[in-house]
Every structure is written in C-alpha cells, then in structure tokens.
Design a protein that fits this description.
The chain is an all-beta fold. The protein has one domain: Kelch-type beta propeller (Neuraminidase, 6 Propeller), CATH 2.120.10.80. A 4-stranded antiparallel sheet has the order 2-3-5-6, with no helix packed on it. It starts with 5 loop residues before the first strand and ends with a strand. The relative contact order is 0.17. The model has no long low-confidence stretch (mean pLDDT 83).
C-alpha cells in the first residue's frame, strides 16, 4: 500500500484470506485527492501488498461486503473529479470483484444513489445496503434497507 494517507476506503477479508483495501481518497482534509478506483490486497502469509484491477467507478464512503458466492461487492458511495465536496455525487452503482480472475463486473444499481452506507451479507444469497445519505452534504440519514440478490 502506498505511503500516502488513505481515508474513507472500504476493507473486507476475501475468501482467499487476503485483506482488500478498496477506493477511498489520498491525502488529508485540506489536500485530499479525487476518489480512487484503486484496489490493493494484503497477504498476511507473506506480509505483502499487491495492486489489483481497479473498480470501474472511483468511490469513497461506500459499502463493501463479501457475498456467499465469494465475490467482493462495492455498493454506492461518492464519486467526482474534483477534490472539493461540491464536486462529489452519490452513486447507485454496484460492482462485483472476482478474486480468482482479478476482474470487476458492473451489476444492476440500487434503487437510489447513496453514500456513507453499510453493507452486510446474509446466510443466503441476499445482501443488504443499510442506511446512508443521499449526498456529500445531506445531514439526514436514510432509514432505508435495500436487499440485493446477485
């Protein structure tokens, strides 16, 4: 992983035992970068980081979860080309990463864009996107739970 500060990323432990660091941004509050599409995996067995295929959409403040199918899902978040929050827009997009092939697939989106949400997987095939906000500035949290079946 790079020596830069990285914030508002998501992390999951993959089915292969590696820890995946997904998206976010680099820098600090005053010198942050636009959102990242970067994906890196840490292998505890070898104490090494590996750069992997990037997500289709750069994002920060999003949910991530490992599905029962072994894929890593990224859900919603904020994207934009600028560094200031006025340029950040919420995403409804969902992507799935397959560790065995190092590939991403864009899936059906959520019903509405949202960021700062939590993702969880159930014991069956359904995952949930829980809560969040509709924009970078919206201070009202959503009391919304949306089920997702890949």
């Amino acid at each position: 992983m790079s020596c830069f500060l990285r914030a508002r990323l998501a992390a999951v432990t993959g089915p292969d035992g590696r820890i995946y660091a997904l998206g976010g941004y680099r820098g600090n509050r005053s010198t942050k970068s636009p959102p990242l599409a970067t994906v890196e995996a840490y292998s505890p067995a070898t104490n090494t980081w590996q750069t992997l295929a990037s997500m289709a959409k750069p994002r920060e403040s999003f949910g991530a979860v490992v599905g029962v199918d072994g894929r890593i899902y990224v859900i919603g978040g904020l994207t934009g080309s600028g560094v200031a929050y006025p340029s950040r827009v919420a995403l409804a997009s969902v992507e799935a990463y397959t560790p065995a092939t190092n590939t991403w697939q864009t899936l059906s989106p959520m019903s509405a864009p949202r960021a700062r949400l939590v993702a969880a997987a159930g014991p069956d095939v359904e995952m949930s996107a829980i809560g969040g906000q509709v924009s970078a500035y919206d201070l009202h949290e959503l009391g919304l739970v949306e089920g997702y079946t890949p």
